[in-house]
TrEMBL record:
Origin species: Stylosanthes scabra
Domain annotation Leucine-rich repeat-containing N-terminal plant-type: ranges: 29-68
Signal peptide region: 1-26
Keyword tRNA-binding: no
Alphabetized InterPro entries for the sequence: Leu-rich_rpt, LRR_dom_sf, LRR_N_plant-typ, StomDev_PlantInt_Reg
Coiled-coil region list: none
Protein name: Leucine-rich repeat-containing N-terminal plant-type domain-containing protein
Keyword Repeat on entry: yes
Pfam families noted in UniProt: LRR_1, LRR_8, LRRNT_2
Keywords for the protein's UniProt record, in alphabetical order: Leucine-rich repeat, Repeat, Signal
């Protein structure tokens, strides 16, 4: 009888220890509850990515989730509607999801990554509590949905944020003043929204930023001078906005800047020589503005443009002869200006077609009509 009693005691102790260990190694019930509320606000009918969001431990087998190995708090939600994951490959579908982002997400205070991108149908506003509650957040990517409303005014509180992507949505606010407090931000994508107002005058405080993608919005005003302090900026895209003013000369002095797109704005003035002679510049699009004056004759052996588009402006004078000495010129478009004179011969002109020079005042020579 004593032996039987000992066996039951041992069994009970084993079960107790197992339960205690399971409780310690599972995600906290509060995280699980927040995730289920997050899921309940969304509808994903095709892929079934939420089908395995069952059981007590959200750290085990829940699609798109990762947890801290020590605290077992949820650290990453990574759900992309366009993915190479085998779920997408097997069904040969891209993702489609509707619903909105539940404020319950803000209870996941250990979250460092929130990616809910390219689902096409998620709408509603960004919960304002994300900025005040998720202080560990490093990546916030909500690209490719139908999210509307404002960028949270306190977004600058997310001091650890390195990636902030809201491109291809329906955001209609101005850029919050606090955005410039994101000192560690490296990638900013606000493209293809309805964002209005000026760029913050102190936008250059984002010293770590390497990509600023702000195209296809309703931004106004001029390019702030503080941009010149952004020594790591490689890609600046302000195309298809309502930017006015001239191109700041200092843009041509930025050594890392390799892609500059200002097309489709209302800018004016002359094109700075330093911008065209900058050997690091590889893609420059200034088309569909009001730039005037001659094209600076400053090209040389270090010039390497994958694309140079100066079309649909008011440029005058001749095509610079120094273009013939460029190391490489992939795409060149000088059409729809007021240029005159003979088109230079040799590279890169020998591989360009007439469309690159059409609708000017009096250009002649190959590939246009011969000069008389």
């Amino acid at each position: 009888m004593a032996s039987s009693s000992s066996s039951y005691s041992l069994l009970f102790l084993t079960l107790f220890i197992f339960s205690a260990i399971s409780a310690v190694t599972s995600c906290p019930p509060s995280d699980r509850a927040a995730l289920l509320a997050f899921k309940d606000a969304l509808t994903e009918p095709n892929l079934g990515i939420f089908h395995n969001w069952t059981g007590n431990d959200c750290c085990q087998g829940w699609y798109g989730l990762s947890c801290d190995p020590n605290t077992h708090r949820v650290t990453d939600i990574n759900l992309r509607g366009e993915s190479q994951d085998r779920i997408f490959q097997k069904l040969q579908l891209t993702g489609y999801m509707t619903g909105n982002i539940s404020p319950e997400i803000c209870k996941l205070t250990g979250l460092s990554t929130l990616v809910l991108a390219d689902w096409k149908g998620i709408s509603g506003e960004i919960p304002s509590c994300i900025a005040s509650s998720l202080s560990s957040l490093r990546i916030l990517d909500l690209t490719g949905n139908q999210i509307s409303g404002e960028i949270p005014a306190d977004i600058g509180k997310l001091r650890r944020l390195t990636v902030f992507s809201l491109g291809d949505n329906a955001i209609s606010s101005e850029i919050p003043k606090s955005l410039v407090n994101l000192a560690g931000l490296k990638h900013l994508d606000l493209s293809n929204n309805r964002i209005s107002g000026n760029l913050p005058w102190n936008f250059g405080n984002l010293r770590m930023l390497s990509r600023a993608l702000l195209s296809r919005n309703e931004l106004t005003g001029s390019i702030p001078k503080s941009v010149f302090k952004m020594n790591r900026l490689a890609d600046l895209d302000l195309s298809m906005n309502r930017i006015t003013g001239s191109i700041p000369v200092q843009l041509g002095k930025m050594k890392v800047l390799s892609t500059l797109k200002l097309d489709g704005n209302s800018m004016s003035g002359q094109i700075p020589s330093r911008l065209l002679s900058n050997s690091g510049m590889g893609i420059l699009n200034l088309s569909r503005n009001g730039f005037e004056g001659p094209i600076p004759d400053v090209f040389g052996a270090k010039t390497y443009f994958m694309a140079l588009d100066l079309s649909y402006n008011n440029l005058t004078g001749k095509i610079p002869g120094s273009l013939s000495s460029a190391r490489f010129m992939g795409h060149l478009d000088l059409s729809h200006n007021h240029l005159c004179g003979t088109i230079p011969v040799g590279s890169p002109f020998d591989h360009l077609d007439a469309a690159s020079f059409s609708d000017n005042d009096c250009l002649c020579g190959n590939p246009l009509k011969s000069c008389e």
